[in-house]
Please model this.
Amino acid sequence: MAIAKAERLMNLALCLLGTRRPLSKRELRESIEAYLEAGSDDSFNRMFERDKDDLRELGLVIETVENLDGDVGYLARRDSNRLPPVTIDAEEAAALGLAAKVWQQARLAGAASGALQKLRAAGLPEDLNPHEAHSALEPRIPVHEASFEPLMLACRDRRPVVFDYRKATAARPEPRHVEPWALECWRGHWYLAGWDRDRGAERVFRLSRITGKVRTRAGKFTADIPDVVTVRETVASWAGESADRSALIRLRTGAGYPLRAKAARIREVGEGWDELEIPYGHGLDAWLVEFGPDVVVLEPAELRADVVDRLRAVAKG
Model:
């Protein structure tokens, strides 16, 4: 949301909450600077109706009142927009503290700490410490990619973005024009799902392969956002998680531990190599290429051919 619009909505909400009687459109226009700057009555009316709808979507209860003369006024009664008292038991406090710890290493750490402070100010019992250790396990979601924050904001605000992306098989990054939908963490890596405008299809991007800055673009999304964005399922299928076949590869000793973790069978073959049987699904060739000379595909033949083609494409640059 643009800063100017956010400020305008805040001013309108304060006017509606601060009045004891319904305010007409004329009175609201005279009270809010942004409405005074509207070029015409039609422009103001459209702006006001959009802002009123946005505030209602955000949860503000706005009443429309008609007086005896037929004039329409608006107000937001405080009793209708007051949240109930915050009541949190020990288990809920522990869950909140655990959620805050998850983001301790991310750019959302400040927001998580601020949320806990607001809950305490709103009535969180003093004897309940959300930061108290409740388990030997302490989850962490590491976020090292500089693209995480701008992409998170773009997903929230529904803003198209442009970034340079290097595929596993490419020597150089290429610009991608994307309508971002959702961010998810899978196996320690962050992925973005969205609509790739250049290819006219849904795509998933690994944040560690985004180079340079993420730049936002004006305009609305051109594709419908699905009700359920299956980032993890898509990445898992690429990595062979849902595979019903097997592949036989040769892996250099002491290398490729992610592949060893997925292997159904490992056999030493000598001379610094091991033989692994791993699940074979869509996208496995792209994953194997990342291990470079430490992997040799034995079978099936089509997987070996795909890996060779990708390596040749990288070599050509």
